[in-house]
User: Fold t-SNARE coiled-coil homology domain-containing protein from Periophthalmus magnuspinnatus.
Amino acid sequence: MSSEEFEKLHEMYRSLYDELKLLPERALKCQGEERKRLTRVFDERQGEAEEVLQGMEDELRGAPPSFRNAMNTKLRIYRRDLAKLQREMKNNSSHLMSEGSNYSIYSSQNQHSTHLQSQRALLLQGTESLNNATQSIERSQRIAVETEQIGTDIIEELGEQREQLDRTRDRLVNTGENLTRSRKILRNMARRLVTNKLLLGIIILMELAILGAVVYLRFFRK
Assistant:
């Protein structure tokens, strides 16, 4: 969006509206051809104002959402004010119905044109609302896909961690079994060591007894 272009259109609209809002009262004070002329001027300026508002709407399509929403509200107020001036001018011009059928046909055509412009504005607003809803749905879908992907990654990671825990548990079971066998082996070795010590002690005692007997028989027995 070009902010400079938007401001230029906004100033053009304000200028047209300032001119338009004076015409119904002026037309009420005039008669005949002058009133017809003012009515034609009003219709021309009102058409220009509608085109300017349409240009402002086009410029707002590329604006940030916060600014676009605020200005769209202001544009609806502008269109309401234009419609109000149109009704005032129509009421003031209704007194000219007896002055000729040509003006009546022209007024009817202008009213139909205004109705079409209003319908077009409503259609554009509906289209914009639909586009906003579509964008919101697309954002929600993207978030859902990203969330699903994150969930899948977490599940895969948890699966890998479970496998690691199972392997660790198996290793711990094997280590426990090895420790049990090691304790049994150590207990057997300890029993054998004690047995060997007892046997060695008995052998030493027997040797001492034999030595004592030999000494006794050799030196003390005559």
User: Anything to note?
Assistant: The chain has a mean pLDDT of 82.
